[in-house]
Write a structure and sequence with these properties.
Helices cover 38% and strands 19% of the residues. It has 681 residues and is an alpha/beta fold. The protein has four domains: 94 residues, Nucleic acid-binding proteins (OB fold (Dihydrolipoamide Acetyltransferase, E2P), Beta Barrel); 79 residues, no CATH class; 188 residues, P-loop containing nucleotide triphosphate hydrolases (Rossmann fold, 3-Layer(aba) Sandwich); 157 residues, Rossmann fold (3-Layer(aba) Sandwich). The strands form four sheets. A seven-stranded parallel beta sheet has the order 11-12-10-13-14-9-15, with helices on both faces. A six-stranded parallel beta sheet has the order 16-21-20-17-19-18, with helices on both faces. A five-stranded mixed barrel has the order 2-4-5-7-6. It binds adenosine-5'-diphosphate (ADP) and magnesium ion (MG). Magnesium ion (MG) binds next to α10.
Length: 681
């Protein structure tokens, strides 16, 4: 029998060329694809309500008998209105359907059905509008709802799936070996595939879902692990001496234990192995990642190689340059800045010094590696705050030297299990300790009516010599509600409360050099108040700024708010973050109050993941992970379980290439290459 993945969808009864085209729009080409096209939701018909208990509008399920044949009537515009009455042992109810000329043939009077649909009220009382239905005798209580496309209803898809499942052979190969399933109490693939579409009750659905979710995450987990092994290449950058102790002498402070551990991890990577370092250093805002990166650069330089340090923005690059220059004064390290804003002649001089090897530490933007810049002997590339290199960028980087080491710094706190998957091809060091004597930012939640008071507070802080940020969410095009747009907002402030105070404004529509100039004015304390959209998220370090007010705070994810808040509390003064929200729903308040309670980025990330899913960690950014069919990155429990199972599998079978894991491997290939599920044959 040919694989169901090679069997076109037209092999199913009732699916012709036109239908097939509609299925293709949903990404379903073959019978196998259809079996893997899982419902997006379910209607639960297991506890129908009694007709006499229907008292308000909303979705209901009833179990009732059709009292008489459905009658069709033509209404305006050639449309059909179909009406009927149903009853149970407590009363009768009207049902109506619009524009479905087959309804009268599909429903038979005297038969008992489940009806599921929306109750509305008119002057004659309650009616059930366009319900879905099935005879009670069919026995199913939980009905699948599928993602649909024009002309293709969920019901049609369900019928096609029913036929597809009939084509499943009695015995199908299972990517999860029996021993693994038994040990972790997971059902077989065949049962899971049938029950995910048509479960007999909610317990059966849960069993099926658990099995499929777990399998998908195990596959992802193992796939990322093998990717990690393969992403290691031999490096020509041989580091033999550890100079981190010497570097520490240059610092004006003691490194924290966590910083020391991260540095030691990097040094071990570079000195003990022949493969290149691929490490992510993760630490909350203000954890002191820069010092870690600087130490690693120092060791590499003292071993005779160059180090490139990349920042996401020009202004951040310039700031790092100034910091490093002061730090390395008298150390003999030759340091240069290379950004697009430099004069051509200066750029040329810097490029020359990079090419001939006189420049040892080069700070710049990402243009540093994508440009025509030639390195004499690049030993390590560090990227700051830019979450990670894409595959293409990494290849580019590797070609800049003899497979130089790579260090990625990230302030995005990610729960460990998720991190293992998302950054599966990187080793991770976590800086889980802040430098001593930090004053945590005080965070409060206020309503719009308190705005005047907050403005007064900002004025006081500015009068005391400090600076402040006001952050407005980006306005999406066509959005007509009262979300403050940065530009109008700033204009209004400058004309009223802050008339006598220099106000700056940055938003997405500014050209890079305009933005840069505006940020510089704020950094130089020329403007006292900066009105901004999220562009300041990975922005400057202005220790003198002590207040941040965030408008429409409910529009941001918690992690994003936490990152924003990290822009204050960088100096000696007590700093404040005021979240403004007019959304009084309990859920919104609870969410925002998490920020008022804690400054721990990891706790916040955990909450965020629970409430919003992982998209928020990455914003619009591609995280480069394969598209999941059923699992959910926010499901930490399943992530943890899959981690355990993956460990167990590697322990039992030793090697992913073991013959017992042939089908599992096929699934890994499928997930990463987007091939078909190979086990359905
Ligand atoms: P981030 O992790 O957000 O990049 P930075 O590296 O910018 O944090 O460090 C934030 C501030 O803390 C800097 O001013 C830095 O000089 C200071 N800092 C870093 N490490 C320590 C330490 N161990 N003790 C005291 N201050 C430190
Ligand atoms: Mg930093």
């Amino acid at each position: 029998m040919p694989s169901l993945y090679k069997t076109p969808i037209t092999a199913l009864a009732g699916v012709g060329a036109k239908r097939a085209e509609q299925f293709h729009k949903l990404g379903v080409q073959s019978v196998g694809d259809l079996i893997n096209f899982y419902p997006r939701a379910y209607e639960d018909w297991s506890s129908p309500v009694k007709i006499e208990d229907i008292s308000e509008e909303g979705m209901v399920c009833i179990k009732a008998v059709l009292a008489s044949p459905i009658s069709d009537a033509m209404i305006g515009g050639g449309r059909i209105l179909s009406r009927g009455t149903v009853y149970d042992d407590t009363g009768t109810l009207k049902i109506v359907f619009f524009n479905n000329r087959y309804i009268s043939q599909m429903l038979t009077y005297g038969i008992e059905y489940f009806f599921y649909g929306k109750i509305t009220f008119d002057s004659y009382g309650a009616q059930l509008v366009s319900p879905t239905f099935a005879p009670v005798s069919e026995g199913t209580r939980i009905h699948p709802i599928y993602r649909t496309t024009a002309g293709l209803t969920s019901k049609t898809i369900a019928n096609a799936v029913k036929n597809a499942l009939k084509m499943l052979p009695e015995h199908i190969g299972d990517p999860l070996p029996e021993q693994v399933r038994r040990h972790f109490d997971l059902c077989g693939l065949r049962q899971a595939l049938c029950d995910i579409h048509f479960p007999k009750d909610s317990a059966a659905l849960e069993t099926a879902r658990r099995r499929l979710v777990t399998e998908e995450l195990v596959v992802l987990n193992l796939g990322m692990r093998s990717l990690r092994e393969h992403s290691r290449t031999l490096t020509g950058v041989r580091i033999t001496e550890d100079h981190s102790a010497e570097f520490e002498q240059l610092l004006p402070f003691e490194l924290t234990g966590a910083q020391k551990r991260a540095i030691a991890d990097c040094v071990a990577d570079m000195t003990e192995k022949t493969a290149q370092m691929n490490r992510l250093v993760q630490g909350d805002v203000g954890a002191g990642k820069t010092a870690v990166a600087a130490s690693v650069c120092y060791t590499v330089i003292k071993n005779g190689f160059q180090a490139a340090f990349m920042a996401p923005t020009e202004i951040l690059a310039r700031q790092h340059f100034e910091t490093f220059r002061k730090l390395l004064e008298g150390s003999g390290v030759q340091i240069e800045l290379l950004t697009g804003a430099l004069k051509e002649s200066e750029k040329k001089r810097v490029r020359q010094s990079i090419a001939d090897g006189t420049a040892q530490l080069i700070i710049g933007t990402h243009a540093l590696i994508t440009d025509k810049t030639e390195f004499a002997n690049l030993g390590v590339a560090v990227t700051d705050e830019q979450h990670r290199f894409g595959v293409a960028q990494r290849a580019k980087l590797l070609s800049k030297g003899d497979n130089p080491h790579l260090l990625v710094m990230s302030a995005t706190p990610i729960p460990r299990t998720l991190g293992l998957i998302i950054f599966g091809d990187l080793d991770i060091s976590v800086i889980d300790e802040l430098p001593p004597n930090r004053k945590p930012v005080r965070t409060v939640l206020r309503g719009g009516k308190d705005r005047e008071g907050v403005f007064r507070f900002i004025r006081e802080e500015i009068a005391n010599g400090r600076q402040a940020y006001i952050v407005c969410p980006l306005v999406e095009e066509g959005e007509l509600d009262n979300v403050a747009s940065a530009q109008e907002y700033a204009a209004e402030l400058m004309l009223s409360q802050f008339r006598d105070i220099p106000v700056g404004i940055v938003h997405g529509q500014l050209k890079p050099d305009e933005k840069e100039a505006e940020m510089n004015r704020f950094a130089n304390n020329e403007t006292k108040l900066l009105v901004a959209t999220t562009v300041i998220e990975v922005g400057v370090d202005v220790p003198n700024a002590s207040v941040m007010m965030i408008e429409n705070a409910e529009r941001f994810g918690l992690s994003q708010l936490h990152q924003l808040r990290g822009r204050v509390g960088r100096g000696g003064a007590q700093s404040y973050c005021v979240l403004i929200s007019d959304h009084y729903s309990k859920a919104t308040r609870q969410r925002l109050e998490v920020l008022c309670r804690t400054n721990d980025g990891f706790k916040i990330a955990d909450e965020d993941l629970k409430m919003r899913g992982p998209g928020d960690f990455f914003g619009e950014r591609q995280h480069g992970l394969p598209q999941l069919a059923i699992a959910d990155f926010a499901d930490t429990k399943s992530l943890d379980l899959s981690q355990k199972i993956a460990d167990y599998i590697l322990f039992i079978y030793k090697d992913l290439r073991s013959d017992d894991l042939r089908l599992l491997n096929a699934e890994i290939d499928r997930l990463f290459d987007r091939g078909g599920r190979n086990t359905l044959n």
